[in-house]
Write a structure and sequence with these properties.
5-stranded mixed sheet, 205 residues, 5 strands
Length: 205
């Protein structure tokens, strides 16, 4: 049991190191823009590492083989980072800057800004693969990135809380409110983007 516990601890630690590597990249970009440009595209950054209980629950739900090699290959959101930006264009800009770094391999992109989910959810989701340099070898781990605006993040937070409170059986009138709030949030992002373009003297087209 002790050997198994050490193996599981080491397994999760590699993902924590992956988070640390990506956070370093994000923070470098953030500080660079704060000191050398008129604004930083990055407003807020948070991260999370799946707990062992959450990881095992996902293994059961997805039918993944309960072995570490299978989990490493199939479960790609063990490590997660959320980046919040002021404007939609900034979200794409941040993704492009990270994707162009030579040691960041973009494995998958889901653009829920251009193509929102049916419930109104909007965000950019990326799975990246990044090297983690250990004392005796290099491990490559997957890290999930969620990049969204402040309005998108606010909506997603409220939606998550409602679905948690009602155990995913949200009353119809609240679902309708969420749908309308998603529309308003998208309109707010578009309006603020146009105002930013006007301030910069650029053509939004």
């Amino acid at each position: 049991m002790r050997a198994l516990q050490r193996e599981l601890t080491r397994f999760l630690l590699h993902y924590q190191f992956g988070i640390d590597e990506v956070l370093t990249k994000v923070n470098i970009l953030r500080e660079e823009f704060e000191h050398t440009h008129d604004h930083s595209p990055i407003e807020h950054v948070s991260s999370r590492l799946k707990s062992m209980d959450s990881l095992l629950d996902k293994v059961r739900r997805t039918g993944c083989d309960p072995t570490l090699p299978a989990i490493r290959e199939r479960i790609r959101d063990v490590a997660g980072i959320r980046i919040t930006c002021s404007f939609v264009s900034d979200a794409y800009w941040v993704v492009d800057m990270l994707a162009r770094q030579p040691d960041v391999e973009v494995v998958e992109v889901k653009d829920y800004i251009a193509h929102p989910k049916a419930n109104g959810y909007r965000s950019l989701h990326l799975i990246v693969r990044i090297p983690v340099f250990l004392s005796d070898r290099t491990e490559h781990v997957h890290v999930e990135l969620q990049v969204r605006t402040i309005a998108m993040d606010f909506w997603a937070s409220v939606e998550h809380q409602l679905y948690y409170k009602y155990d995913r059986e949200v009353p119809a009138h609240l679902v309708a409110e969420l749908d309308d709030a998603a529309r308003v949030a998208a309109e707010l992002d578009a309006r603020m983007g146009r105002l930013r373009d006007e301030l910069r003297g650029t053509d939004p087209r």
